[in-house]
Amino acid sequence: MSYRVLVTHHLEETEKKAISDVLSDVARISYWPVVSEPEKNQILAETDVILGQSLSAREIQPRDIQRMDKLRFIQAVFAGADNIPFEHIPPRITVACNPGAFAEPIAEHVLAMTLALAKSLLENHLLLARGRFEQNKLNKALKAKTCGIVGLGGNGREVAAIMQAVGMTVYGINRSGQSDQAVDFLGTMKDLPALLQNSDVLVLCVPLTRQTNNLITKQELRQMKPDAILINVARGDVINQRDLYQHLREHPEFQAGIDTWWVEPGTHGRFSVEYPFFELPNLLGSPHNADDVQGVMTAATKKAALNIRHFLLGEKIFGEVDRKDYEF
Question: Beta strand pairing status for 201-204 and 94-96?
């Protein structure tokens, strides 16, 4: 057995077992957080593949990555690649993320946010708590309405399926204009204006890249229906923060559900917003936990380990990242 896989982040025992079940017959597995100092140089010299979360300095130092002369492949457990430090990774190394690994819980979260906003659940609950029984405001129906999805990758496909299950017409766009998910309309990013104009619910599922950074600004928001619902489970920076706040404030019938924020503890060490979003009744927020359900990290880890197995055996891999998309 000549291959070595180095895992750079802390794992639960179930995640370690998932890796062992998939890879123990083709590679030696080392766990960087528990590697002793005397062993480190040898393991760095022998490593063929890294399995990590985002490969930040909290996991492994850039200088250690650059010392791995045998390193050929880096696999991320997470679906997004925008936090991977490509500037410290030699161009010869193939990098893959884990698209769709968290798609099912994310799709459920999208549906939950959409229903909560369409039915004014939080707003009505708070009114009742203050003794106000306001029964006359109409709820929004989802059946036979249009859900537009920007990004038909793993997450977008699962969102499409769950929205179709509640009777929505689904339009989707992505870079290629191709998908194995059957939708009522499938286009490319050039079709974004039409998607904006026709969507009663718009769901953002794209990765954060040079092309999608600041994708939704006041210009795009103005093209949407006055009473549309916008759900973001992509990244905060896909939407212009100031423009979203102003649009929500100026269009009280427009609603937004935000799970991913511009400044978060995982990337910035803190949570903050530049505008008083939480004073607005037409915003619903969650703390970037759409994908956080019991057992999901074990399943995602197993999927990532399977991709490593494919790589080591010379088979087709999924999720390979074009690092040029993340140079911004």
Answer: unpaired
Query: Which residues of the chain have a pLDDT value below 70?
Result: 1
pLDDT at 266: 87
Res 55: pLDDT? 85
DSSP 213-239: TT-B-HHHHHHS-TT-EEEE-S-GGGB
* CA neighbor of 256 nearest in space, from 289, 223, 221: 221
Q: What pLDDT score was predicted for residue 276?
A: 98
CATH superfamily, domain 103-285, is: NAD(P)-binding Rossmann-like Domain (3.40.50.720)
For residue 43, what pLDDT is reported?
95
Residue 50 corresponds to which tokens in the numbers above?
């890294």
Beta strands in the chain (DSSP E): 3-7, 27-31, 49-52, 73-76, 94-96, 146-150, 169-174, 185-188, 201-204, 229-232, 255-258, 283-285
CA nearest 294: which of 20, 78, 104?
Answer: 104
State the pLDDT at residue 1: 60
The CA-CA-CA angle for residues 113, 117, 122, to 5°, reads 95
User: Any idea which residue has 């010869």 for tokens?
Assistant: 92
pLDDT at 328: 77
Residue pair 210/328 in contact by the 8 Å Cβ criterion: yes
**Intrachain domains 3-100+295-326 and 103-285 with the same fold:** yes
Angle, helix 103-118 to helix 121-129, in steps of 10 degrees:
50
Tokens 């528990």 -> residue: 34
- CATH code for the structural domain at 3-100+295-326: 3.40.50.720
Per the DSSP assignment, residues forming a β-bridge with 146 are 169
Residue 193: CB atoms within 10 Å: 11
Residue 190 per-residue DSSP state: G
Return d(Cα 253, Cα 257) in angstroms, integer.
Answer: 13
Whether the pTM exceeds 0.90: the reply is: yes
The two tokens of residue 225 are 């229906």
CA dihedral of residues 259, 174, 247, 167 (deg, nearest 10): -70
